[in-house]
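Readers outside the structure-tokenisation community will struggle with the description of the input data as it stands. I therefore recommend that a typical entry be quoted early in the introduction. An entry of this sort, consisting of the sequence and the corresponding backbone structure tokens, reads as follows:
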Amino acid sequence: MSEPLLSTLRAALINLIAGTIFLFIGSIACAIAAIRRRQGARAFLWIGIWSMVYGLLQLTQNGILLPLSPRWLLKIAPTLNTTLTYSTVVAGSLAFRELSKGKLRQLILIFALLGLLIAVMGVAFFVWTGAPDRMIPSNNALAACLLAVLAAAVAVPKLARQYMMADRGVLVVGTLLFTAEALCVNLLRPLGLGTPVILDHIGFAILLFSFGYSALQLVVVNEHRLLAVENELAIAREIQASILPASLPAIDQLRISAVYRPMTAVAGDFYEFVPIDRNRLGILVADVSGHGVPAALIASMIKVGMQSVISCSQDPSAVLRSLNRILSGQLRGQFVSAAYLWIDTAAHSILYSAAGHPPLLLWRDGRLERIESNGLLLGVFPERIDFPVASIPIYPGDRFLLYTDGISEPENVRGEPFGDNRLEDVIRRNQSATPSQLADRVISGIESWLPSANPPDDQTLIVVDVGEVKDLSTSDGDCTPQPVAVEEFAIRNPARSR
């Protein structure tokens, strides 16, 4: 066998092995990106595509593989080879973009778009004229410019700190070695001085490895950052659980149940019990707009604010005015709805006032009444605001429900809210249920209504039943008040159970 033919076969074998390796590496990188789906994984996606494009390019022009390929593959091989040739710069640009930041990221996107335009034009020229190299000079010039930008961005420390996301150590070595190899090949080949084809593969492998290492650095950094955030959220969850009532108050003639379900680790819903004695109790329910840590911080402010209004707890309007004064100027564009219920079992009455909150529900004698006594949302206007107060007598058998809009507004797959009518239907069908049973069935009804198990909003529901009052005038001389047995007051609070 002649030396030229042997050299050709050797080069084809090297290309076949290299193409297979790069195709496998690219597949692994894309699989990692698909599995992780987190910040930083997109760099693996484009690096994988870049590697696969390069590997397929070696296979579609391989002198050993093509003669063994099916006829349909032989037919499309030239078009596929041309497409892959022009796509290499596009894939490389997008991989580089995932490692950059700031204005450099925008510049590289322009390179990628130009590369895509050249690729479309190059493939179009090939389809119409059969000339695969019509746009190759433009493609090579774009690749050279992109390589120059990459080398400058990683080699100059000031530029690297400003525009590169990953540490430049390995990336600068890989980039400079690939640049040296590319310059060497492109300078020697026009002079008729051949270079081993394996140098091309080694140079690209070094560059690809440096990109992969930098992408891995980003993933590790993001993992550490995510772990730190999760640790902080765990602490925030514990703190928020600590500001919620640890137990339910024992009040004569009342049975109470509370359900609290945050949408995320921490929530903007808040509730508080203000027990004064065995007969008097204040209940506050508040809902901060939004979710997560910002809303939870405002909920903590409400907790602190409630400590300063204990002296006026028997006046719902005064409670809401004080909270409005405390929150005004502190919400940074968010708002708070709230409702305050004052119950006096000795006087057989309640006082109720609200600030832009869903109505208080009263179930009495087989009918559901909606009690609305609303003022403006809290924290919107710093000046004195009036919050109207509703005074209502209470009777044995009355049932009150205080809740946030996460109970009535969740939507199903058709965009229909759970709504007041469905809430009323659950209450009607569970007239004889205990407060805790009713609360559980309301939540179960909402869960069956939702398209997923995760609530789309924070949910808080408090159910208060008024029990029978013992007639003291017919007692056997025992004047001790007889409280109704308090229910099992384990607050269903996911944050506390963690």
